[in-house]
Amino acid sequence: MGGVGAPLRPAAWTLNQRRGVSSWLARWFPKTPAKSVVALKTPIRVELVAGKTYRWCVCGRSKQQPFCDGSHFFQRTGLSPLKFKAQETRVVALCTCKATQKPPYCDGTHRSERVQKAEVGSPL
Known about the structure:
Blueprint: H1 11-28, E1 44-48, E2 53-56, H2 71-74, E3 82-85, E4 90-94, H3 113-117
Antiparallel strand pairs: 1-4, 2-3
Organism: Lynx pardinus (Iberian lynx)
GO cellular component, one term: mitochondrion
GO molecular function, one term: metal ion binding
Protein backbone atom coordinates (compact mmCIF):
# COMPACT_ATOMS: atom_id res chain seq x y z
CA MET A 1 0.00 0.00 0.00
CA GLY A 2 2.13 2.87 1.23
CA GLY A 3 5.53 1.19 0.97
CA VAL A 4 8.07 0.34 3.62
CA GLY A 5 8.09 2.77 6.52
CA ALA A 6 5.07 4.74 5.28
CA PRO A 7 2.78 5.83 8.11
CA LEU A 8 -0.57 4.15 8.19
CA ARG A 9 -3.30 6.79 8.22
CA PRO A 10 -6.89 6.22 7.32
CA ALA A 11 -8.15 8.53 4.56
CA ALA A 12 -10.89 9.79 6.89
CA TRP A 13 -8.26 11.01 9.38
CA THR A 14 -6.66 13.26 6.77
CA LEU A 15 -10.07 14.58 5.67
CA ASN A 16 -11.14 15.31 9.25
CA GLN A 17 -7.80 16.94 9.99
CA ARG A 18 -8.23 19.36 7.09
CA ARG A 19 -11.81 20.08 8.06
CA GLY A 20 -10.67 20.79 11.62
CA VAL A 21 -8.10 23.32 10.46
CA SER A 22 -10.46 25.14 8.11
CA SER A 23 -13.22 25.31 10.74
CA TRP A 24 -10.71 26.66 13.27
CA LEU A 25 -9.68 29.37 10.81
CA ALA A 26 -13.30 30.20 10.02
CA ARG A 27 -14.05 30.72 13.72
CA TRP A 28 -11.14 33.14 14.19
CA PHE A 29 -11.28 34.80 10.78
CA PRO A 30 -14.91 34.91 9.65
CA LYS A 31 -15.60 35.62 5.97
CA THR A 32 -18.32 38.09 6.88
CA PRO A 33 -17.12 40.58 9.50
CA ALA A 34 -19.33 41.50 12.42
CA LYS A 35 -20.90 44.94 12.48
CA SER A 36 -19.33 47.68 14.56
CA VAL A 37 -21.16 48.43 17.79
CA VAL A 38 -21.81 51.79 19.41
CA ALA A 39 -19.13 52.22 22.08
CA LEU A 40 -20.35 55.62 23.30
CA LYS A 41 -22.74 58.24 21.99
CA THR A 42 -20.29 61.13 22.26
CA PRO A 43 -16.80 61.58 20.80
CA ILE A 44 -13.65 61.50 22.93
CA ARG A 45 -11.26 64.44 22.74
CA VAL A 46 -7.61 63.37 22.69
CA GLU A 47 -4.30 65.02 21.98
CA LEU A 48 -2.56 63.39 19.03
CA VAL A 49 1.22 63.75 18.85
CA ALA A 50 2.77 64.55 15.45
CA GLY A 51 4.46 61.54 13.87
CA LYS A 52 2.94 59.01 16.30
CA THR A 53 0.94 56.09 14.91
CA TYR A 54 -2.42 55.25 16.48
CA ARG A 55 -4.86 52.35 16.09
CA TRP A 56 -8.48 53.53 16.21
CA CYS A 57 -11.02 50.93 17.33
CA VAL A 58 -13.34 50.06 14.44
CA CYS A 59 -15.37 47.32 16.14
CA GLY A 60 -16.53 49.37 19.16
CA ARG A 61 -15.67 46.59 21.62
CA SER A 62 -12.39 48.00 22.97
CA LYS A 63 -12.26 48.90 26.65
CA GLN A 64 -9.69 51.61 25.77
CA GLN A 65 -11.92 53.74 23.51
CA PRO A 66 -11.27 55.33 21.11
CA PHE A 67 -8.18 53.16 20.63
CA CYS A 68 -7.89 49.44 19.93
CA ASP A 69 -7.08 46.97 22.72
CA GLY A 70 -7.35 43.81 20.59
CA SER A 71 -10.95 42.97 21.52
CA HIS A 72 -11.84 42.61 17.82
CA PHE A 73 -9.56 39.59 17.60
CA PHE A 74 -10.58 37.81 20.79
CA GLN A 75 -14.27 38.36 20.11
CA ARG A 76 -13.76 37.07 16.55
CA THR A 77 -15.30 40.06 14.80
CA GLY A 78 -13.29 39.83 11.58
CA LEU A 79 -12.68 43.58 11.87
CA SER A 80 -9.32 45.34 12.18
CA PRO A 81 -8.37 48.68 13.72
CA LEU A 82 -7.76 51.74 11.56
CA LYS A 83 -4.07 52.58 11.77
CA PHE A 84 -3.22 56.25 11.22
CA LYS A 85 -0.35 58.65 11.83
CA ALA A 86 -0.91 62.12 13.29
CA GLN A 87 0.36 64.81 10.94
CA GLU A 88 0.55 67.47 13.65
CA THR A 89 0.20 67.70 17.41
CA ARG A 90 -3.32 68.83 18.21
CA VAL A 91 -6.47 68.00 20.14
CA VAL A 92 -9.11 66.22 18.05
CA ALA A 93 -12.49 64.56 18.64
CA LEU A 94 -12.34 60.86 17.76
CA CYS A 95 -15.56 59.01 16.97
CA THR A 96 -16.88 56.41 19.41
CA CYS A 97 -20.31 55.81 17.84
CA LYS A 98 -18.48 54.13 14.90
CA ALA A 99 -20.88 55.67 12.37
CA THR A 100 -18.69 58.55 11.21
CA GLN A 101 -18.11 59.09 7.51
CA LYS A 102 -14.62 60.48 8.27
CA PRO A 103 -12.98 57.81 10.44
CA PRO A 104 -11.36 58.10 12.91
CA TYR A 105 -12.59 61.68 13.36
CA CYS A 106 -16.02 62.64 14.64
CA ASP A 107 -18.28 64.20 12.02
CA GLY A 108 -21.31 64.73 14.27
CA THR A 109 -23.12 61.53 13.26
CA HIS A 110 -23.56 60.67 16.95
CA ARG A 111 -26.22 63.41 17.10
CA SER A 112 -28.44 61.56 14.63
CA GLU A 113 -31.64 59.95 15.82
CA ARG A 114 -30.40 56.55 14.63
CA VAL A 115 -27.34 56.66 16.92
CA GLN A 116 -29.15 58.26 19.86
CA LYS A 117 -31.84 55.54 19.79
CA ALA A 118 -29.27 52.74 19.63
CA GLU A 119 -28.16 50.97 22.79
CA VAL A 120 -24.49 51.27 23.73
CA GLY A 121 -22.89 47.95 22.74
CA SER A 122 -25.39 47.25 19.96
CA PRO A 123 -24.77 47.49 16.20
CA LEU A 124 -26.39 50.25 14.15
